[in-house]
Specification:
alpha/beta, Rossmann fold, 7 strands, 41% helix
């Protein structure tokens, strides 16, 4: 691990287990490898898409692969995240505790209501956070990235390994004969082409400060 004199706190927020991995898993791994501290806040245990206890165990295994320091669980019911004050405050509580320098979260335009709602709650909760980036998942719509991270083969492999940890979800893409690993590879190459590198993760910035 490389030492970093300007160590940052990075928080990734997801509606379900494995959202963060497909959206920004390689970027989190790269931050951790550079000496920054990474955390996850996951709103639901994904019970509507599988066994909740299994999915929590898979999430813990994946977080260890990505060298995430801690996981915070929102304990919301899968498919029932609401846009309301208590939901906003639950995110604000984590923000006050961690004081993150950068936050990643689901993109607001999405066919899954939980993804839309966690994004809306995060937008309100992060109104004083300087760096907020939206990531994409297979259900994201109309995604227009304006920030790219060169993840290279090394961190792309971390992403695949983390996704494999979610073994109950690998083939639950709702696309015939296409696994989440294949989706991840296609996306990494496509965003890489856009960014003029071999492998990339792409983001849309709500806010992004560049210090000069």
């Amino acid at each position: 691990m490389m030492s970093n004199p300007t160590k940052m706190q990075i928080l990734a927020i997801g509606a379900h287990p494995d959202d963060i991995e497909i959206g920004c898993g390689a970027t989190l791994a790269k931050f951790a490898a550079k000496g920054h501290t990474t955390y996850m806040f996951i709103a639901t245990d994904g019970g509507a898409g599988g066994n909740a206890q299994v999915r929590r165990q898979e999430q813990a295994q994946s977080a260890a692969i990505l060298q995430v320091t801690d996981i915070f669980w929102g304990n919301y019911v899968d498919t029932e995240i609401r846009i309301d004050t208590p939901s906003i405050m639950s995110i604000e509580t984590i923000i006050h505790q961690l004081k993150p320098d950068m936050i990643f979260v689901n993109y607001p335009d999405d066919t899954h209501q939980d993804h839309r709602h966690i994004a809306a709650n995060t937008i309100s909760a992060t109104r004083y956070i300087r760096n907020v980036l939206f990531y994409e998942t297979p259900t994201t719509q109309n995604f227009q990235p304006n920030v790219f991270v060169d993840i290279g083969m090394t961190f792309f492999e971390y992403k695949l390994k983390a996704l494999r940890a979610h073994s109950s979800q690998i083939n639950r893409t709702n696309i015939a004969n296409l696994s989440i690993l294949q989706v991840a590879e296609s996306s990494a190459h496509f965003r890489g082409v856009q960014a003029r590198v071999a492998y990339a993760e792409a983001f849309h910035s709500l806010r992004l400060f560049i210090n000069i």
